[in-house]
Amino acid sequence: MLVNQKVRILIFISLMQLYSSCTKKDNNPPDLFVQSPLSNEFFQLPCDIKVSGYVTDNEKVDRVEVNLVSENSATIVQGFDLDSDSSYFEYDLSFIVEDLLLLSGNYFINIKAYDEFGNFTSKYITLYLNEIPKTLESLIYITSNTNQTFIYQQDSIGANSQLVKQSQGNHLLSIGNSRSQHLFVGTDQNGDFFDLNNFTKLWNVPVVSSNYPLFIDGSKSEDGNQSHLVLADGRINSYNKNGNIINTIYSNPQEWFGKFNFQENIVVVESSSSFLDRDLVVYFRQSGIEKQRVEINGEIVKIVSVSNNEYAIFSQFLDESRISIYYENLNQIYTDLELPNSIIYDAILLDNYLIFSSSNGLFKYDFNLNTLNSISSNIKPSKIILSEMDSFVYLTVGTELWTYSGNGNLNYLSNYGDSIRNFIPVYNK
After folding, report:
1. What is the structure's pLDDT at 32?
2. Is 263 in contact with 305 (CB distance < 8 Å)?
3. Nearest CA to 116 among 27, 16, 20?
4. Where are the CATH 2.60.40.10 domain residues in the chain?
């Protein structure tokens, strides 16, 4: 009896010890040490970021997570999840960062060390990553007749021209987007998005038979993440890089859209119900709700954003051109300059000056001082294309290509032998 009692006591003590060991809780997190990279270290992309250090724990290190993240904690490169089975663990790994679209700025190596009880220690190491420089990769020019549109590609120095694509119909509109590596070509028969790397068709905008051309105007967003199209049936569609329509703005019944300008939060667009009844309308970009409108005289040729809340409006009424400034915050439009016996072709903003072409030549307009200077009376470009790398523009003049720089240099580049409908520089991003 006494023996049995002792056995029961021993079993009870053993069970209590076992229970105690099983329920023991460690509240001490691991100690985490980072040897590289150094805080605020500079890296030029593309780069290889070495991450090394060690972790210790009074019991056992369970795992170590390492991630490269942005300032808003978005993952930049797929992270590492390292398992451990000891109280001391060394980590040594590399992040290869070669994203063309990654912007310069502060980024973080985030390291988290866990023990077997779920306790963890987290550290952020600040890095500065300098983006991959933008480079000119190739040049695209487009020609067209009533039945066919031809897409040609050259190398970055304007040599080795080759036909890369043909599209049915007369060219109406084309947009290059180097960030997404897309090219949109709209004709009176087709509206196609092509891959800029191999010119395969990615998706299309359906074109229905009509008495009017569908594609009125277009642009890419400033960040290059979207492409915008003004359609003659009263829509402004925004497409993402996968071809999905992510937003649509509709005109009022019995109105149709003309030229437009897309900004971060608003869209400024011409809306007309007849040849004479025209308004400049502002829509909220995301909701498509009309914010305000103001009456305008003449048909708008181009809308150029010149500063916050200010837009240069180039309009045409019969044989008279006008340059007006629209103050969006006041919803007021004021005519700065009237140009009789003139037809406006195109306009852009270059170094705080408006460069525009007309039937009277190429001009430089200082809208702050209201002064107009002739660049050339002989050069009358149909298209003015702003370079994304330097302070100059490309000019298409019939079959010829010219450039004009902010310092006043006007240079002839080449003759393509056929009238140029559009010219598109293609960049690596």
Report:
1. 98
2. yes
3. 27
4. 29-130
